[in-house]
Structure formats: C-alpha cells, structure tokens
Design a protein that fits this description.
The protein is an alpha/beta fold. Helix content is about 50%, strand content about 15%. The protein has 14 helices and 10 strands. Helix 5 runs antiparallel to helix 7 (about 105-125). The longest helix is centred in the first third of the chain and has 23 residues, at about 60-80.
C-alpha cells in the first residue's frame, strides 16, 4: 500500500515518548539503541523518563522527535507494508520526511538535527527573540502588522503559516510584542506568546544557517525517487542539490505548511498518516481541508490498529 506520510515538528515532544513503541516493536528498540550510541548519550532516557524541561531544550527535543517519528514510520513500513508515495514534515519534520524518502540515513539525520538544535539554541542566546501565534487573522493582515511593528533594527516576520487563520510570527521581543498588541486591537481571536528559546524561522537565527549548511554537506545526501514537499517554498524536491538548497533556506524562511498541504492534496488522494509524537498535523489538516482524513500513527496502540486493519488499505 502506498500512502502520504506527514512528520511533526518541534513542540510535539512529551515525557514518555517512544517508550511504548520500544517495548512492543523490536525495530523501534533497535533504532533508539542506535540513536543513543550515535549521539553518545542516553537520549532514550530523556525521552522515556527524563525531566520535561531537559526534553524541551531545542537540542534534545529535535533529535527526540525525529527518532520517534522514524521509529513510527519504520513500524508502518515493516508491520503494515505501507510505502511512502509523497511526504512532508513541519520544520524539523522535514528531516524525518527526507529519511522516509531515502535521501538521508536515519543516524545521519539524527546527527544533523542534534547539531541544528544546538545552533538554533546558541543563535537564540546571541540574538534574543521570541515567537507568537496569531489566531483568526488573514495572512496578508498579519504580514502588514509585522511590517508596521518592525522598526529600526527590531523586526518581526511571518514564521509559520500553519493553516488558514493560524499564523506564527517571530522576531525581536519588543517587535513581537508590538505586533501582538496590534493583532489584539485588529480583532484577532487569540494571541499567544510561545515558550521558545529564540526567534526561529526569522533573520535573527541567520548565524546558525551557514554553519548548519556546511555541516549538512559533510553527509551523504541522495536523490530520492518520491516527492518531498519542502517548507521554504512549498515545492517538490527530489535531487540532492535541491534538497540541500531547501534545507539551507529553512531556518530563516517561514514554514509554508498550509501551502505545502494544499500541494500534497492536489497530488495525492489516497491514505495519509501522521507518523510521530502528538497530533498537531492531524489537527491542522482539519482546518486546511476537513474532508481529508489523517490517520494518527504515533503510539503503539494507534499503529497496532493500522496493522490489524491493513487489508482495508490495500
């Protein structure tokens, strides 16, 4: 069976993540063991029973989510015979998607996202910033309020276009706060400052970009035979050069998730799964196209249901 696979990004982590997969599926146990060996510390302990604040640190959350996501995908592949036809991942999830597409090996991706998390964390220290979710406003209106809230060297930009009416902004703290106040005055349904360590997907993390790209080029990136939808421009990438280019622009460009899903739905009318922790992408799909169903595949119970009913997907 062929399917579209979606992979979640940062914020989906939770203490206990992946533990049930490891206990019930050998492929997941091997993957987490290999992950610990690759990173040189027990990431599995942080995932299964660690401190929430430690797990939430960008440098830990990113490899943890990637490892959980790849484990879920591998179980779908081995136990349910599901083959990826088209894939996309939200920010960090784009690396999981590239693993599923065969563009990069799992442990190489794990090393890359650990480095990515460290660089993003350090960028947040050197150039402090924040992010906020704006609910209930049009994209053009949020773009205008970002422009009007940016002054001198203090900027705020669009960071995540998650779905119609849900947009995340990112930038200097004072500029983001000005934009938040302006959004409230313009009738936004809800404005929420996010608990993040930096202004991700904005020019404020540009110091991490060049070093990350240089690091990525040290690994073997391959062409892929399936469509991978990239965040930076909501376009299809398949060859090595385009993949590296897409990743090089990802840190400072907005995540065009709503546009990416629009493209996926135009190209694919079959089954769709969300592989990894949480249910963020499943929820966003309901707001993008309520007629298209995403099947959750993040817990052992969810995956067992898919395996038991795999005949229905043939």
């Amino acid at each position: 069976m062929k399917a579209a696979i979606l992979f979640p990004g940062q914020g989906s982590q939770f203490v206990g993540m992946g533990n049930d997969l490891v206990r019930q599926f050998r492929v997941a146990a091997r993957l987490f063991e290999e992950g610990d060996e690759t990173l040189g510390f027990a990431l599995s302990d942080i995932c299964f029973e660690g401190d929430k604040d430690i797990l939430t640190e960008t440098r830990n959350a990113q490899p943890a989510i990637l490892l959980h996501s790849i484990a879920a995908w591998k179980i779908l592949k081995e136990e349910a015979g599901i083959e990826v036809k088209i894939t996309a991942g939200h920010s960090l999830g784009e690396y999981s998607a590239l693993v599923a597409a065969g563009a990069v090996e799992a442990m190489d991706a794990l090393r890359i996202v650990r480095k990515r998390g460290e660089l993003m964390y350090n960028a947040g220290l050197s150039q402090p910033g924040t992010m906020a979710a704006i609910i209930g406003m049009e994209r053009s209106d949020v773009r205008d309020l970002c422009d009007n809230s940016s002054r001198d060297n203090s900027i705020v930009v669009l960071a995540n276009i998650n779905c119609p009416g849900q947009i995340v902004i990112s930038g200097n703290i004072d500029a983001v706060q000005r934009a938040m106040e302006m959004a409230k005055n313009q009738g936004a349904k809800k404005v929420i400052q996010l608990n993040v360590s930096g202004a991700f997907h904005s020019p404020l993390v540009s110091s991490a970009e060049d070093e990350l790209v240089s690091y990525i080029k040290g690994f073997k990136i391959k062409d892929t035979g399936i469509d991978v939808i990239c965040n930076a421009d909501a376009g299809i990438v398949r060859n090595k050069e385009d993949i590296i280019d897409a990743l090089s622009r990802q840190l400072t460009n907005p995540v065009l998730w709503s546009d990416s899903i629009d493209l996926l739905l135009k190209r694919w009318d079959g089954e769709i799964f969300e592989a990894g922790p949480g249910k963020v992408l499943t929820g966003l799909m309901k707001r993008i196209d309520r007629h298209r169903i995403v099947t959750r595949a993040g817990t052992a119970e969810e995956i067992k249901k898919i395996v038991a009913s795999k005949a229905d997907f043939v």
